[in-house]
């Protein structure tokens, strides 16, 4: 329970940091609405009294107040109507503010989570499961938004219950006493469900992530699934993940509805007993009994809803815990975001006695490599020997466990890494394409006109774009679905050339091209080297003919 309270405090603290102004406004509106609610309840008492025409059936201070003001039934009803209108207006603005709080908090948390992913070190980020990140950024943040909703509802109920409690002390203390005693008994009876709510919430987070994982496996391996006729196997695995999620939701829903059924049944029994005892033994008049029943019947559902909101809050909190843990982990591995300008080296670029290991397994050990400026350097050798790791260290995506990146014999500093990457055009091995137009995929955040785009597309032999009905505005699917492997590679190569940076790194940039096109690309690289230092990873035999330097990584 203490861990739940710590998590709740952390959530409330984060909520206040992200929405202090809106929360302050909401609290003021809650106070005003509770005051109008309390006054409205008090106004019911003289109305009932006037309608029943009983003497001394209401507190003397209320009857004295109405007599001094000489209020008629019509006057009291007008005041009551005015209070209801004011309360309705306050509630209208209160609900709008509460919605803004929920949306602003969700947006702020989602942005913070996304930012933590963006600036986490590549070595850390590459070890994080994509399905977990997607679940947190979508369903997880939405669940935290619902946590905010239930938290605000709790505040509303507390304000209303306080108003009813103040009125009950004056006009129906027995109703307040019965509500408190009955509420405590229900808390003792259903105390275990609060623990179950948190456990079900944790299970829901895990079930959702497993379902997202199954979807990601299918989407990323769709072609392999169909080629191997594994549709039935994938459907069965998806149904199992879905069944686990549904089972968790059903068990939690059953526990919640059973609690509500018990509370409603017991509340009805207490109200009936209260009416019977009030008339038979306590000799209550109609006004007194009506006030007692109204106060109890209004306060008891508030407590029931309060308990339900606490339960829902505990059910949602695991999503907040999961997200904040990810943000914390990403922040701990976050790169230095200081932007210290750096000039491209004039004389030398090298890796000096670098070492690197993955999960305590050495990949590169005490290796020094020179990359002559304005030349084509080819890295070759058997697969799995660390060629991609070397260029990742050169691009400062990975930090050597030992050794340094040297620019004109000066080590690259952590605060210079962002500035260094801005001087690099890196075509990665996966050839990333996204769902968008060909133009957007080539630009990828760069600024260029259509003539520049057509120029680099022609340099990369991407003549197929001219034959498309919408040419540059043609939309390609996720990961370039609808394009051949060679066409995809031409698009990403054009993107790399459009960037026009002094260092061009190409990781297996021609492995999907035919020999004729590959030959053209290598000839193009030879022309570019007068203004660009080129580092090429390739297993192609043709690459050796055009490389100025060949480094075999063993």
Topology of this protein?
Blueprint: H1 2-18, H2 20-52, H3 60-69, H4 73-119, H5 122-125, H6 130-171, H7 173-189, H8 192-220, H9 222-227, H10 231-280, H11 286-332, E1 349-358, E2 361-370, E3 376-380, H12 387-394, E4 402-407, E5 410-411, H13 417-421, E6 424-427, E7 436-437, H14 438-443, H15 450-459, H16 464-467, E8 475-476, H17 485-499, E9 503-507, H18 515-528, E10 533-537, H19 541-546, E11 549-552
Parallel strand pairs: 3-10, 3-11, 6-9, 9-10
Antiparallel strand pairs: 1-2, 1-4, 4-5, 7-8
Helix pairs in contact: 1-11, 2-4, 2-6, 2-11, 4-6, 4-11, 6-7, 6-8, 6-11, 7-11, 8-10, 8-11, 10-11, 15-17
**CATH class membership of the largest domain:** Mainly Alpha
Under the CATH scheme, the architecture of the largest domain is Up-down Bundle
CATH topology of the largest domain: ABC transporter transmembrane region fold
Q: Percentage of helical residues?
A: 55-70%
How many separate domains?
2
Summarize the biggest pleated sheet: 5 strands, parallel
The structure class reads alpha/beta
Q: Which descriptor suits the 3D outline?
A: elongated
Please tally the β strands and state the result.
11
Instruction: List the total number of helices.
Output: 19
Q: Helix-strand pattern, N to C?
A: HHHHHHHHHHHEEEHEEHEEHHHEHEHEHE
Average residue pLDDT: 78
**Computed Rg:** 35 Å
* Fraction of residues in β-strands: 5-15%
Distance between the termini: 56 Å
Unreliable segments of 5+ consecutive residues: 53-57
């Amino acid at each position: 329970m203490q861990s739940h309270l710590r998590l709740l405090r952390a959530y409330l603290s984060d909520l206040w940091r992200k929405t202090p102004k809106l929360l302050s406004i909401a609290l003021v509106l809650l106070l005003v609405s509770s005051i109008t609610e309390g006054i409205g309840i008090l106004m019911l008492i003289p109305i009932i009294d006037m309608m029943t025409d009983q003497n001394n059936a209401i507190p003397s201070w209320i009857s004295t107040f109405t007599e001094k003001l000489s209020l008629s039934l019509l006057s009291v009803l007008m005041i009551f109507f005015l209070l209801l209108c004011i309360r309705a207006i306050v509630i209208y603005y209160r609900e709008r503010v509460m919605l803004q709080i929920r949306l602003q908090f969700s947006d702020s948390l989602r942005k913070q989570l996304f930012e933590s992913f963006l600036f986490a070190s590549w070595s850390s980020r590459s070890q994080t499961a994509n399905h977990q990140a997607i679940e947190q950024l979508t369903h997880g943040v939405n669940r935290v938004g619902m946590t905010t909703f239930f938290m605000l509802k709790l505040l509303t109920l507390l304000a209303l219950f306080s108003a009813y409690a103040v009125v009950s002390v004056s006009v129906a203390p027995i109703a307040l006493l019965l509500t408190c005693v009955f509420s405590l008994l229900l808390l003792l009876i259903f105390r275990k469900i609060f623990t179950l709510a948190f456990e079900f919430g944790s299970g829901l987070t895990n079930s959702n992530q497993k379902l997202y994982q199954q979807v990601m496996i299918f989407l990323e391996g769709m072609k392999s699934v169909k080629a191997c006729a594994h549709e039935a196997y994938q459907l069965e695995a998806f149904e199992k993940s879905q069944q686990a999620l549904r089972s968790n939701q059903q068990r939690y829903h059953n526990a919640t509805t059973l609690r509500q059924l018990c509370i409603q049944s017991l509340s009805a029994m207490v109200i009936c007993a209260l009416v019977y005892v009030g008339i038979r033994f306590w000799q209550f008049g109609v006004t007194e009994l009506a006030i007692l029943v109204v106060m109890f019947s209004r306060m008891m559902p508030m407590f029931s809803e309060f308990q339900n909101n606490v339960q829902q809050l505990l059910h949602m909190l695991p999503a907040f815990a999961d997200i904040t843990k990810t943000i914390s982990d990403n922040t701990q591995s976050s790169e230095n975001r200081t932007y210290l300008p750096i000039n491209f080296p004039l004389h030398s670029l090298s890796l000096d006695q670098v070492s690197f290991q993955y999960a305590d397994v050495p990949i590169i050990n005490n290796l020094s490599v020179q990359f002559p400026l304005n030349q084509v350097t080819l890295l070759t050798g058997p697969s799995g020997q660390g060629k991609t790791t070397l260029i990742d260290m050169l691009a400062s995506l990975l930090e050597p466990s030992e050794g340094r990146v040297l620019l004109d014999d000066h080590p690259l500093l952590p605060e210079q890494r962002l500035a260094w990457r801005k001087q690099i055009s890196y075509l990665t091995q996966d050839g990333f394409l996204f769902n968008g137009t060909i133009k957007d995929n080539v630009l990828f955040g760069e600024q260029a006109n259509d003539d520049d785009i057509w120029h680099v597309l022609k340099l990369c032999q991407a003549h197929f774009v001219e034959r498309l009905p919408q040419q540059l505005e043609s939309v390609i699917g996720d990961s370039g679905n609808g394009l051949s492997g060679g066409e995809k590679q031409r698009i990403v190569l054009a993107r790399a050339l459009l960037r026009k940076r002094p260092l061009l790194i190409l990781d297996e940039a021609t492995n999907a091209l035919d020999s004729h096109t590959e030959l053209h690309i290598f000839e193009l690289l030879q022309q570019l080297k007068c203004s660009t230092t080129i580092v090429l990873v390739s297993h192609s035999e043709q690459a050796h003919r055009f490389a100025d330097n060949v480094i075999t990584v063993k």
